[in-house]
User: What shape does this take?
Amino acid sequence: MTKKLLVTFVVMFVALLTIIGFILIKDSGKDIRPITSTVEPTETPEATVEPTIEPTMDPESDPRFTSTDSVLVFANKKHKLPDGYVPGDLVSLSVSTAYGDVQMRQEAADAIANMFNAANAEGIYPVVTTAYRGEDFQRQLYDNYVNRDGQEAADTYSSRPSYSDHQTGLAADISCEANGYNLNRDFENTAEGQWLAQHAHEYGFVMRYPDGKQDITGYMYEPWHFRYIGVEEATALYNVDPNMTMEEYYGISGGNYAE
Ligand SMILES: [Zn+2]
Assistant: This one.
C-alpha cells in the first residue's frame, strides 16, 4: 500500500516538474521574443532618427525666451510670440537683398553684415530674400498658402501669424544667384549654402530647421533659414552637433501645432 502511494507520489512529482519545466521554457521564450523584436526596428532606416532630448523647460517661464530684448526670443508651433509682438530695434539691412528693403533687429543686422563680408572675401555671395515679417504680413502669406494648398500642407512650410521665427526680427532666408534666389533644398548644394552651413555659427546664426528634424521643429528641412542667437550660443550649439535644433539644445517642446 505505502509502496503504491510512493510510486504515485514520484509519478506526480515528475509530472509536476515536467509541467513547470514547460511553463518556464514557454515563458523564457516569451521573454526572448520581445527583445529580438525591439532590436529589429533599430536596423530599419525608419529608426535612424536620432534620439530626441526630452523637453525639460517651458520657454514661457524664462525671460531669455520671452523678452523682446533677448536674442533668444522663441517661437515654434508649440510656443507663440506675445500678441502684437514687434521688435523695438528693427533696421534696414545693408547687405545684398533679392527684393529690396529688408529689416532685422540691429544686432542681427550687424551680424549678418559681418557674415556676408567674410563670405564675399572668399568669393561667396549670399543674398537675403526675406527677414523680418510682421504679424499682419505673415497672416496674409499664410492665408494665401492655405487657400492654395490647404491648411495641412501650408503648416509644413509656412507659419501661422505669431508663431513665425521671422516675426522675431532675428531670422533671415538666404539664397544666391546660382539658385535663382529660390528657397529650396538645392540651396544646400551651392557654394553659398555650404559656406553658411559651415560658418554661420561664427557670426551668431544657426540653421533653424535642419534636415531630418521635422518632428522636433515642426518644419521640413530649410537649408536657407538662419536664425540669430548670438555668437556664444550659436557656437556652443554647433559644437554639440551642427544638425542640432534650438528645441533640442534648450530642451523646449516642439513639433506640430497643438490644434
Ligand atoms: Zn524662413
Strands lie at 90-92, 103-105, 127-130, 171-175, 205-209, 222-228. The radius of gyration is 28 Å.
